[in-house]
Amino acid sequence: MLVYIESIFKVYNCYIFANSLQNLMCTYAIIVCMKYAVNYIKNTFHPLDVSDDVNLEPGQMVLVSTEKGEEALKVFLVNSQIAALWEQSKKKPVTMRFLRVLSQRDLQTLDDIKKDEVTAFFKCQALAAQHKLGMNLVQCRFTFDKRKVTFYYTATSRVDFRALLKDLTQTFPRVRIDLRHIGVRDETSLLEGAGVCGKPFCCSSFLRKFPSINVKLAKDQGMPAAPGKISGTCGRLLCCLTYEHANYKDGSMKATALETYTDDTNIDIRQLEDDRNSSTGNV
C-alpha cells in the first residue's frame, strides 16, 4: 500500500514538474518573441519580429517595415513582464517586421534624408505662402525608402490645398505626398522640448491621448487663473492638471475633518513660499 501511494506521489510530482516546465517554456517563448520593440508614433512601442539568431543592442538603429513604408527606428529592450502583458492583452500593439540593422552606409543615407526633409520643408512652406494658404507647416518626414513624404501642419480652419498638392507632385516626382492636419498639442509633441517643470513634455514622452482639460481643474487645485501659470508651450491648459485633480478633490471634501484635529493655527504660510534664497544656482 505504501509503495502504491509513493508511486502516485511520484507521478503527481512529475506532472506538476512537467506543467511548470511547460509554463516556463511558454514564458521563455514569449520573452524570445517579444524581447525587442521600437517606438513608432504617439509614444507607442511595437514588438519587433526578430528571429532567434539575431542579437540586437538597445539604442541600435534598425530598418523595419511599416504601413507607410520602410522606417529607420531605434531598438528598445523589453523586459519579461511587459512581454507577458503584451501577450495577455486584447489590444496588443501591432508587431513590426525587422528587416536589417542599419549599416554605416545606411546611417549616412539617414543623415542625407534629414537634410532632404529640411529642404522639402522650406519648399512646401514657400509654395503654401505663394498660394496664400492659412496653414502653419510644422514638420516634414520622409520614409527611409523615400517613397512617401508627410507634411504636418496646423490651421484654424479648413484649408483647400488642391493647388498646393499639384505643385508638390511636380516638385517631388514619384513620391507619395501626405498633407496631414494636426492640432497644436500634436505640434508640441512633434517638436518636443521641456516644460515649466524642467522635464520633457508629457505629450512627447509618454502621453498617447490628450485628456479633456478645463479651467475648473485649476480652480479646484487652488491655482491662479493666469494663462502664464496654467498653460503650456502649446498655448493650451497644462496636461498635468489632470494628474492630481482627484486627490485635490478628495482632500477638499475632507478638509473640515482635517481642520477639526489641527492645532497649528499660528503657522505663517508665507514661510513656506520660495524666495531669492531658495535656489542660488550654484549647483
Whole-number radius of gyration?
28 Å
Largest sheet: number of strands, sense, barrel closure? 5 strands, mixed, barrel
User: How much β-strand is present in the residues?
Assistant: 15-25%
Note the run of SSEs as H and E: HEEEEHEHEEHEHHHHH
Low-confidence sequence ranges: 1-33, 255-283
What is the general shape? Answer: flat
Overall pLDDT metric: 76
Number of helices: 9
**Major beta sheet, strand line-up:** 1-2-5-3-4
Helix content: 25-40%
Structural class: alpha+beta
Task: Explain the overall architecture.
This protein has 283 residues and is an alpha+beta fold. The chain folds into three domains: 25-102, no CATH class; 107-182, GMP Synthetase, Chain A, domain 3 (2-Layer Sandwich); 205-260, no CATH class. It is 39% helix and 17% strand. It has nine helices and eight strands. The strands form two sheets. The protein has a five-stranded mixed β-barrel. A three-stranded mixed sheet has the order 6-7-8, sandwiched between helices. Strand 3 (61-65) and strand 4 form a beta hairpin. Helix 1 (2-33) crosses helix 2. It is flat.
